[in-house]
Amino acid sequence: MAQITAGAALVARLGRLGVDCIFANSGTDFPPIIEGLAEAAAKGMALPRAVTVPHETAAVAMAHGYTLATGRAQAVMVHTNVGLANAVIGTINARADNIPMLLFSGRTPTTEAGRFGARTVPIGWGQEMSDQHALVREPCKWNYELRFPEQVQDMTDRAHGIAHSVPRGPVYLSLPREVLCETVDLPEVPAQMAPSSPMAHPGDIAEAARLIAGAQFPVIFAQRGAGSSEAFEALSATVDRWAIPVCQYWSLQLALASDHPMATGPDPAPLLAQADVVVVLEGLAPWMPDAHAPRADSTVIQIGQDPLFAQTPVRNFRSDLSLAGDLGCNVVALCAALDRLDPGDRSARRARVAATSAARWDAVDNQIAADGRGPALTKRWVSDRLARLSGDHRVTIFGELGAQLPAMRLSDPQAWFESPHSGGLGFGLPAAMGFHMARPDRLTIATVGDGSYIFANPLACLQVAKAQGLSLLVVVLNNSEWGAVRASVSGLYPEGYAVKANAVPLTDLSPSPDFAVAAQACGALGLSADSPETFETALARAVAHVTAGQGVAVIDATVLRD
């Protein structure tokens, strides 16, 4: 690499590392980045796709969604401390989901004069912080400030390697403007740091298989999928062969088809009451300790990137055997170990679990049918209708207080993504956009509550979707309230004054905006529905619009309050 500015060297290095996109919200610290993009392009260097996103929450969530589709870390660039502050929620979400991400922000120029890149506008003083890194130090695995231009390759490579190392997560690098403005002569070298992706010890894998094989009633709890498509397929075959029920309680991704015969309902209680071996796959909170508990004589096996979740100060779920490392690799290894053992005759147990699963679905189907005969929409009925699209399309559904997994028959490992358990709202829509950028072959659907939709800065999101030529379906399940907050109040105070008065303060979001009209103003197809009949009509029109590549379609669906 000949003489080049540090800004150009940085973006070129991201391209060399295989970063596909830079999701950016620019500011006065960005001139060397912007000039660097132009400089590197003029010199024929391979560059990531630069995506302008006019709000940081959306930028981070788009990178998050893109990585859910590809497994590869993407770059997010924001403006000094104020942009970083807006990016904090998304960074917390990425950390909770173990999403590798390269987060960059400018740093207010250190010098006031006398150096190229020094402060030139009053905000250079207003945005100065003693410790800007403190904003994201806790949710990030690693953080550093670029001190010298010759560090560009080393620090970018280190950030990339650490982000991808298990347990994966976001990293942060601050970029002083003066450093980016300097020129540097760096040779073109391959990536210097391969990420670490450890697996559990083979002896622990064998012991877990022995415990499962010897159990009378083993149960698996899965919250974040199986780790890979290969692991999804292996787990499906293994739990069928060994007749092991799988509970996907508060699931963020599918570890098993939701209508697999061994897939149970979402209630952990009856399973924990019987289970003598409990296997937890990447479960931050596999059950609620105030309501459920494994038997005292059971054995609990926790499997995950960090099965004890060290970044969570308080999490006291028992773990008698902890298998750390890449989840997909460990699941495949455990299934292979069980394949080498003889399950014996499991037909009676398999029949019992399958019968329970079938009975649950019969009850759900009856509820859905009753909802469909009613005058108003329910989240349950809408969820079913969206899941049925998977019969004709490769569907990916993002949920954020929107669609309900227990009412959906989905069988693809990338069919379902729920918002992270960190609860940073505004995730669902932009994450679906990022996913769709990486996987335009899939029918991508964002299903969000009206409160979550507002948090996503929908005008900013729809502007980006239009600019990037994205075609996805957005269903706003609009009950004009913070439904999760109301449910929490009812849970703690079921006989309280708020519930008795049916007026829960600080939860009402009426009057609701007309989200369909707002979507039309942004160049999207905007539709409204308030009954099963009108929703069926709107859904058919929206799907035709999206699958024809005509842009975003938004359905403002008025639903009953839960």
From TrEMBL:
Domain Thiamine pyrophosphate enzyme central intervals: 205-328
Organism the protein comes from: Mesobacterium hydrothermale
Classification of source organism: Bacteria, Pseudomonadati, Pseudomonadota, Alphaproteobacteria, Rhodobacterales
Family: Belongs to the TPP enzyme family.
Domain Thiamine pyrophosphate enzyme N-terminal TPP-binding: residue ranges: 5-133
Gene3D superfamilies: 3.40.50.970, TPP-binding domain
InterPro entries: DHS-like_NAD/FAD-binding_dom, THDP-binding, Thiamin_PyroP_enz_cen_dom, Thiamin_PyroP_enz_TPP-bd_dom, TPP_enz, TPP_enzyme_TPP-bd
NCBIfam families, A to Z: PRK08327.1
Lineage top rank: taxon: Bacteria
Positions of the Thiamine pyrophosphate enzyme TPP-binding domain: 408-556
Record-linked PANTHER family: ACETOLACTATE SYNTHASE CATALYTIC SUBUNIT, MITOCHONDRIAL, THIAMINE PYROPHOSPHATE ENZYMES
Protein name (record): Thiamine pyrophosphate-requiring protein
Key words, A-Z: Thiamine pyrophosphate
